[in-house]
Write a structure and sequence with these properties.
Blueprint: E1 2-4, E2 9-18, E3 33-35, E4 39-43, E5 48-50, H1 57-68, E6 74-83, E7 88-96
Antiparallel strand pairs: 1-5, 2-3, 2-4, 2-6, 6-7
């Protein structure tokens, strides 16, 4: 996810992913929602920063299996930018994951 700020700030990203269950998978209904590994970066004014939110191993496996079966996993991402004065700005996005 790419983020641009208009003043020096620290940008942090987190999120969750929902994977539709596929028949025959070893997953239980409780395991279809998983957290993404977050990332934090410092950004200068006008600079575009790329945050890479990674899937955990089990979520990656379930996501690939679901995509092979034609399902579309969805992620909810929350990005927070905090400036030197402590002011926060947040943005939420919903993303459909694509195959590589």
């Amino acid at each position: 996810m790419k983020v641009t700020v208009d003043e020096a700030a620290t940008v942090a990203g987190t999120g969750t992913i929902r994977v539709p269950l596929v028949k025959g998978s070893a997953a239980t209904a409780k395991k279809k929602k998983s957290k993404l590994r977050g990332q934090t970066k410092d950004a200068a004014p006008g600079e575009t920063v790329t945050l890479k939110l990674k899937l955990k191993k089990r979520a990656k496996k379930l996501t690939k299996k679901a995509q092979r079966k034609g399902k579309k996993p969805k992620a909810k991402v929350l990005v927070t930018a905090t400036d030197a004065a402590g002011n926060e700005s947040q943005a939420k996005r919903k993303i459909k994951l694509k195959k590589k």
